[in-house]
Description:
Blueprint: H1 5-9, H2 17-31, H3 41-55, H4 58-65, H5 73-77, H6 89-97, E1 115-121, H7 123-128, E2 130-141, E3 157-158, E4 167-174, E5 177-184, E6 193-194, E7 207-218, E8 227-230, E9 246-252, E10 259-261, E11 264-272, H8 273-278, E12 280-286, E13 289-295, E14 304-307, E15 323-330, H9 337-349, H10 366-375
Parallel strand pairs: 1-9, 11-15
Antiparallel strand pairs: 2-7, 3-6, 4-5, 8-9, 10-11, 12-13, 14-15
Helix pairs in contact: 2-3, 2-6, 9-10
Amino acid sequence: MATDYYSVLGVRRDATAEEIKRAYRRLARDLHPDVNSGPDAKERFAEVAAAYEVLRDPEKRRIVDLGGDPLGPAGGGGADPFGGGFAGFGDLVDAFFGTAGSRGPRKRTRQGADALIRITLDLEETAFGATKEIAVDTAVRCEECAGAGTARGTSPVRCETCSGRGEVQSVQNSILGRVMTAHVCPTCRGIGTVIHEPCPRCAGEGRVRARQMISVKVPAGISDGMRVRLSGQGEVGPGGGPAGDLYVEVEERTHDVFSRDGDDLHCRVTLPMTAAALGTSLTLTTLDGEEVVDIKPGTQPGAIKTLRARGVPHLRGVGRGDLMVHVEVQTPTRLDAEQEQLIHDLARLRDEERPVLGKSSGAGGGLFSRMRDAFNGR
Length: 378
């Protein structure tokens, strides 16, 4: 019977070439005798390799799909699947060690890390924007060596351990023969060159720690927790490499009067009951300055007076949020005899000497009935 090469690799008969390749790599890693000491690992490994050799070839795969066996009876009569120009060997090496071939030395100069700093701003600053000067402790390019990391008059020399390749190679014997692997050179750490005379100021790093003053322009409408990105203002990289970015996170200080909800502001004003009943006007200090707010007669507790476009400017777009003035009515807790008599007279005139059960009558006399009851302890 012809060998079922699809079953050997554990793939469907309509599997794509990429799916066949992935299945082979997975099985090869698991069954290789160097990592699997099982009694049948070597035999299974040979079967997997032979199956991949067949299915990766379109012509041989066509023969399999027609019911034949391109390797002959019993998988080619014991033919060596690794001989005769086994085309999958490069894929096997790739399965174990990544992309075959030398990676070469890496650069000494590398990108610097990003940095994060927090600043605290008042509501007025987040609403209308501000420019702040902040001190940042960060890594900057070494001026002594201009980022090279070497002492003046010297330069890096080629690493003798890896001959400048940045990696060293080792050879191991396996069922496939001699397998060569590459590792990062421990002497130069993969760079390929060594600094024998480092800069005395930065010790060969090409960068030093320093404090810098940076100007940050905070846009109008920014809110608590948002960040401003300053490109190229982060830490300078090793070897004097390009700097990362600096992120400035905004923390908004709690305001004494206003609370913020998105771009809307909220505040509370407390009115005497007489002012709420008769109406009044008050002067409110907003973000834009003093503004007169009219309170209509009969204003109820919990009423909201909305001042349009007196909130925070929108960060993206035009316009502003609103300012919501929440009205609280203060009921007196202590009355002298004359004041109490006046309240009684008012309640009698408004027929509010007894509370009325049921739904509130809105702006009617229920307010003063409740106040009278509160005064008399009912």
